Amino acid sequence: ASGLMYYTSNAAVSNNASWAQITGTPGAETFKEFTFTNVNTGLLLTASGKAYKAVSPANNTPAYVITQISTAAENFVDLDDKSNTRILAFDKNSSRVKYVTKNTLASATAFTAYNNTGTPPIGANINAIYARNNNFDVVAVGTSGDIFQGNAAGANMQWTDRSAATTPLPLQDIFAVGTNTVYAVGNEGTLL
Length: 192
Prior knowledge:
Elements: E1 5-7, E2 20-22, E3 31-38, E4 41-46, E5 51-55, E6 65-68, E7 76-80, E8 86-91, E9 96-101, E10 112-113, E11 115-118, E12 126-131, E13 138-142, E14 147-153, E15 156-161, E16 171-176, E17 182-186
């Protein structure tokens, strides 16, 4: 992979959008997922589990500056930005949900971790997370039908294993369509 990223500020212009390369992108990385908190600031996740912030300088030259904010010890598998104030990410190495605050992402240098309580998931097994509401509650899914519900309370993430009634096939992604309706999809056509 070339590790190149491009942006446009005029995507609404039919067939005439102009694209510019975002400089400073890590050349050997493949970007897997991204979210922008506003037109000037975003968070990028790589296939190798590294997290980078993209910040547009005041003079817009260069267009964005890309800076790694994950440490060598972190391996993020997924991120979710549905909270109004935080971007949540799951670190497979520590088996913990971590976050950056949206309104301070431009100056962020690291993630803040929740303390695990209850029955936390095994980090190596988790493939995806989904933030269920603005209270920073998450559902994590993974291999062998793993489904874990995390409820944030202050600095703690209280985990409950909800996997007991699932088929032991790997789950790859999750999405909620309502307060009590959550779908998980996985290998061999699994839909829960």
